[in-house]
Amino acid sequence: MDISATDIAERVGALGPASAYRVAFSGGPDSHALLHLLATARDRLSAPLSAIHVNHRMHADADAWATHCQAVCEALEIPLVALRVPEPPPPDAGETWARDWRYRLMADALASGEGLLTAHHQDDQAETVLLRLLRGSGVDGLVGIPRTRALGKGWVGRPLLEIPRAAIAAYGCDHGLQSIDDPANHDRHADRNWVRHDVLPTLVARWPRAVGTIARSGSLAGEAGASLGRYAVTLLRGMTDGERLDGDALSCLADEDQRLVLRHWLRQRGAALPDARQLEAGRRMLVYGADDRMPVFHWPGGTVRRYRRWLSLEPAGEVPARQARSVQWLPETDLRLDHGWLRVTRGVGGVAPERLPPSGVIVALRQGGERCRPAGRPTRPVKKLFQEAGVPPWQRQAWPILMVGDAVAAVPGLCICEGFQAAPPDRGLHFHWDPD
Questions:
Q1: How far apart are CA 119 and CA 121, in angstroms?
Q2: Looking at the structure, do residues 379 and 349 belong to the same domain, yes or no?
């Protein structure tokens, strides 16, 4: 299969509009071929062309590779942005560490609407599908590498995804491209390299079209995954309350639909999905666990808790912690706290501004034992107010309480205390807690 300037321009155009195109240029043979192709096709592109190189600092020649990439781009008259991972790699750093840093830095470098073009090809796709199949992935995982996805303020696209590695190598050879050979790509201890150098060649020796067939299976899985996604949206209707999922409604579904809904809900919330074994263990715990035990399902991507009938997600690294100190606040604008926003609006009712001191209120976290008298009701422990409102225990420690002296004036979203309320039709302050 030959690749031409016209062909690559059409493939890039099919990815979608862009305000500029950036090539992810490692200096290796695949990205070098892509960069060279696009350089020859730049007059056919709808937006300016440049390149990005990331120095991962993982190899003794990393700085020399960056210099090589700069020289290649200068020869092709293509602007290059050279990025460098700000911290040295840890002793156990591998491709996952490098990839995370690479995409983080490139995402930060993309301006609004810019498209990052990577050199992933058909063999990469086959390797990804095969690895995920061996790891027990479902339909969603077998989709493999997406043709496009959002990244930072722009997007990332793969114009070579249907092109075999051999065709790209032939292009590089025909044009005398001098590329970097990273020794890490030959380390067979890495699963992908073992699949690339040992497994796929064995399969191709028996089935010459194996690479294309496996990659095509990924595309078919993508179509099936899209249909299942639409079905999951249908199932989810009426099952959510804001960001929470109705556990009772979930328990009424068939087991396979429960798994589908959980995956879709977690994906909507931006959490990294658990693997099939983890998801099944979590599903059983959350659906069948006793209410009085407040079931908790934790995996590296986050934590799901059930309180009463509702499931709540805490993404990885976002477990609430206690505010370091109390804050004095004049409620004229919203207040940013450690784990959310304390917002103020004005309308009929609410807290009477004249009942508050000129210096404002103290925003504190619950220490335990606080009591207040909600307007028109008997005095209650604040703990009971949380229970009555169905606030899960793990959210209460970060929930702000508004104090005037030693008195609770309001618990945002729960109550206004006696003596601080505005009498309708007077307009007062309404406080809302919006956690992260």
A1: 6
A2: yes
Q: Is residue 368 part of a domain?
A: yes
CA 223 to chain centre: 22
Query: Which of 189, 264, 262 shows the shortest CA–CA distance to 226?
Result: 264
Q: Domain of residue 255: give its range.
A: 238-315
Domain count of the chain? 3
In a 3-state reduction of DSSP, which class is residue 41? coil
H helices, E strands: number in the chain: 15, 21
pTM of the model: 0.65
DSSP single-letter state for residue 421: B
For 246-290, the pLDDT digits (tens) are 999 999 999 999 999 999 999 888 888 887 778 888 888 888 876
How many residues are there in the chain? 436
Q: pLDDT per residue over 88-122, tens digit each?
A: 888 888 888 899 899 999 999 999 999 999 999 99
Degrees to nearest 5, angle at CA 228 with 224 and 229: 115
Indicate whether 174 belongs to any domain: yes
229 assigned to some structural domain:
no
- Last-in-domain residue among 315, 344, 373: 315
CB 190 within 8 A of CB 131: no
Whether the CB-CB separation of 9 and 44 falls below 8 Å is answered with yes
pLDDT digits (tens, 9 = 90+) for 378-394: 998 988 999 888 888 88
